[in-house]
Write a structure and sequence with these properties.
Length: 403
Amino acid sequence: MKHHTRLIFILYIFQILSLTAVGQQDDSGQGAMEHWVDSVFNSLSPQERIAQLLVVRANDPRKGYRDEVTRYIKKYNIGGLTFFRGDAIKQALVTNKWQDLAKTPLFISIDAEWGLGMRVNDAISFPFQMTLGAISDNALIYEMGRAVAMQCRRMGIHINFAPVADINSNPANPIIGMRSFGEDKQQVSEKAIAYMKGMEEQRIIATGKHFPGHGDTDTDSHQTLPIIKHDKSRLDSVELYPFRKLIDAGISGIMIAHLYIPELEKKPELASTLSPNIVNKLLRKQLGFDGLIITDALDMQGVTKYHKAGEIELKALKAGNDILLLPEDVPAAIRAIRKAISQKKIKQSLVDERCKKILRFKYQAGLDLEQFIDTTSLVKDLNAPYYQSLNRKLYQASLTLIK
């Protein structure tokens, strides 16, 4: 039995070491990816190509897993799911069930800024980003990124909505605070890159957030639409700085915040998520980002307060986003986009282009392979001695003497 266990461990380590980081493909790998993407894409109806852009809420912390998710998978062939607070075994079992039902493998995502313990009851939590900001050795933060990615892979997760790249410049900020690496833009950038690289080298898609910078707000975009009143010079030199560095370092994903920034978008109360000037012009063209652009949750009041379901998703698509995250009404979103195509307000080719892009990232994250989570010793694996030891190192390295 001991020899059998050792063999499994060696094979697991070999698999981890042989992984290709997200976004890295040689010529043969590129050809295999395009073959898979074309094969899957050609199997999708025009409506299913729209549905591939939608990543849907899997559960509500106090209400359990959503019954309608099974219907969305069967009827629409949605692109993916985001999990919130729950138990590891239950999440793994329902993930297996839904992956088995899906015609096209589902992107599984989670908001695990300080490890799976942020969302999974029986998984270890690493320090908040503000605590990590006190660590001088960024190699430890890189190692934490690898550890979080290994946790995610064990749970069948492909996208982590981290790191937070917001600069903590406003003490009255009700939503960022401890989630930021700090108030120094250089430090925020370096630590965000270390965390990102640790995850991406394990084929987990990292997501820098909340573009173009949620640090200097005094309201919560879950409840309303915060306003950023800085001019272009300040935005460029401070808020955008960490995102520019992350893009240069090769991050795969960027999440767009629900913010109103009059200097960048003149239309009153138009959230940055829905603004072509911010998503398409600034992020895509000026900063040259060609990775996955993901909206912040589209069921947040930062957008639902001013626009209705369906209209929100259509505006987000037209603005330049790839993944439409947590639509409040999935059927309404699909209907609105189909109607816009039939009325020639947008082209089917726009949807097709975004769909193919998402499929490429699915391939790079390993979704061309069978998706199955073995629940044997799952909780034990998520709390392995390696993670416990690393956690102690992180806290020890963050201790600061104040004189």
